[in-house]
Amino acid sequence: MSAPNKSYDPVEVSALQPEELDRARDEALAAIASAADLDALKRARLAHAGDRSPLALANREIGALPPQARAEAGKRIGAARGAVGQALKARQAELEEERDQRVLVEEAVDVTLPWERGARGARHPLTTIRERMADVFVSMGFEVSEGPEVEAEWFNFDALNFKPDHPARTMQDTFFVGSEDTGLVLRTHTSPLQIRSLLTKPLPVYVVAPGRTYRTDELDATHSPVFHQLEGLVVDEGITMADLRGGIDAFVNGMFGEGLTTRMRPSYFPFTEPSAEVDMRCFVCRGASAEPGGEPCRTCSSEGWIELGGCGMVNPRVLVACGIDPDRYSGWAFGLGIDRTLMFRHGAEDMHDMMEGDVRFTLPFGMEI
Ligand code: PHE
């Protein structure tokens, strides 16, 4: 006969009774089945399969049973724990699947919705075309130079050989800064850059100077008190009018395509001698609209030619004003309208559009750089 098991505790071991085990198992299965989400299931797992759950505690009691009872108790408790473990696993899978389905629905992103609703701006087409125009000269080795828009009268007029009584100096054309005797004006053209370049740069000088210019014009479809010019200046030894023509032709071909001719009409500017107005062949009709029976052309108003701006050979007086020996050096200069170029190159018809900064005008030009 084996000795009685001294540590046998009938109260504790009642946990191993078949009814007790069944009850613990059924409670566990009920809690698992009713767990509505993964958090609830986690709590059920802890309560019914954790270290301190009734089944785990019962399992620990096996060792307290008399040896002959252990196998059977072990089997029963193993079955109960197995059933709970399986139920947990199944419910876990079910709830995970449910969660994944819900996330797919709740966190769905409609990739067809419009994006970037915030309006984007664009570079102003005047900025773009001004860079493009200057670039044609940069590619020929010219330097880009800029100067102040509030300019000394001396740079804007005197050094450029405007006599004191020249009509362009009057209030009718020029914005004076403060009273007329401050000697300051809003520059009426970019030609003061000729003087500024010749006074500051070593010879020879090859510069283009794009910038904003001002005259007391009323704003209408073709005029604006604020407009833009591109000044060009070359001063070197042996420069002739053929170089001027060549420079302008290169610009026209670089900007509008090969094979377009230019023409010069005699003109007058105090700072160039001789002076000319320069036109280019219309790049749309190539002159055909001006021929008898030619289709009308909007770009050149059926003139066959498009006006580019003024030009000429640098007046020796200007060279002298800048301390340059006119017997050794000569040069050419031009002033082209940037706004005008934008208008005829892109068919923009109203100056107001240039001024108003409306993106409906600027956006179609895109982000050309
Ligand atoms: N500055 C002149 C104008 O505004 C243009 C020009 C520039 C003419 C250079 C000759 C040479 O009309």
Strands, helices and their partners?
Layout: H1 10-13, H2 18-34, H3 38-49, H4 54-61, H5 67-106, H6 125-138, E1 143-144, E2 150-152, H7 153-156, E3 184-186, H8 192-200, E4 205-214, E5 226-237, H9 241-256, E6 262-269, E7 272-281, E8 305-314, H10 316-321, E9 329-337, H11 338-346, H12 351-356, H13 359-362
Parallel strand pairs: 1-4
Antiparallel strand pairs: 2-3, 4-5, 5-9, 6-7, 7-8, 8-9
Helix pairs in contact: 2-3, 2-5, 3-5, 4-5, 6-9, 6-11
Residues 189, 191, 269, 272, 275, 309-312, 333-335 line the site of phenylalanine.
Keywords:
369 residues, alpha+beta, BirA Bifunctional Protein, domain 2, 2 domains, seven-stranded mixed beta sheet, two-stranded antiparallel ribbon
Structural summary, described in words:
The protein is α+β, with helices and mostly antiparallel strands and 369 residues long. The chain has 13 helices and nine strands. The chain has two domains: 14-106; 125-365, Bira Bifunctional Protein, Domain 2 (BirA Bifunctional Protein, domain 2, 2-Layer Sandwich), CATH 3.30.930. The chain has helices spanning 10-13, 18-34, 38-49, 54-61, 67-106, 125-138, 153-156, 192-200, 241-256, 316-321, 338-346, 351-356, 359-362, and strands at residues 143-144, 150-152, 184-186, 205-214, 226-237, 262-269, 272-281, 305-314, 329-337. It has a seven-stranded mixed beta sheet, sandwiched between helices. Strands 2-3 form a two-stranded antiparallel ribbon. β6 (262-269) and β7 (272-281) form a beta hairpin. The longest helix is centred in the N-terminal third of the chain and has 40 residues, at 67-106. The chain binds phenylalanine. Keywords: Aminoacyl-tRNA synthetase, ATP-binding, Cytoplasm, Ligase, Magnesium, Metal-binding, Nucleotide-binding, Protein biosynthesis. Residues 127-364 form the Aminoacyl-transfer RNA synthetases class-II family profile domain. InterPro entries: aa-tRNA-synth_II, aa-tRNA-synth_II/BPL/LPL, Phe-tRNA-synth_IIc_asu, Phe-tRNA_ligase_II_N, Phe_tRNA_ligase_alpha1_bac, Phenylalanyl-tRNA_Synthase, tRNA-bd_arm. Its main location: cytoplasm.
